[in-house]
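step=encode ok
step=design start
structure_in=
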């Protein structure tokens, strides 16, 4: 596997994380703590692997900017997604950290309060990460 394979791996990690996050939420709603914990630890692992792979790719390519080749409405849509995705992605490290901290300490009430924010942001970032990948690497804009 080379550097050029990492964007596809990143999309797969993001997409899988999104599925596991939704499953984890479903298990939490059913009060299946064991399954919820397993899903959320898997989601943390997948998102951590994504972050490492993302950084390796961009440092290896010597730059964080990947030019978008689309035009018109596609360009506006891409940058609208990117402009929401990026700051929300940056917010996830502390949100996930605090959510995980409260969960591991058994402070369910504080955990629930923070995951009201963490869950939708994490899901949005995971899904839009896949959308960004498709728009950058899979759509032929010529």
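sequence_out=
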């Amino acid at each position: 596997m080379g550097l050029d394979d990492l964007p596809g791996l990143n999309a797969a990690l993001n997409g899988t994380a999104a599925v596991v996050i939704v499953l984890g939420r479903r298990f939490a709603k059913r009060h299946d703590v064991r399954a919820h914990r397993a899903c959320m630890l898997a989601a943390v692992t997948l998102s951590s692997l994504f972050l490492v792979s993302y950084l390796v790719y961009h440092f290896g390519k010597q730059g964080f900017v990947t030019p978008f080749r689309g035009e018109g409405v596609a360009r506006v849509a891409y940058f609208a997604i990117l402009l929401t995705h990026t700051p929300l992605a940056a917010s996830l490290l502390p949100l996930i950290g605090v959510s995980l901290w409260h969960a591991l300490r058994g402070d369910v009430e504080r955990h629930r309060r923070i995951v009201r924010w963490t869950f939708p942001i994490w899901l949005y970032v995971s899904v839009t990460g896949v959308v960004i990948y498709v728009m950058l690497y899979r759509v032929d804009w010529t």
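step=design ok
step=annotate ok -> The chain has one domain: 3-138.
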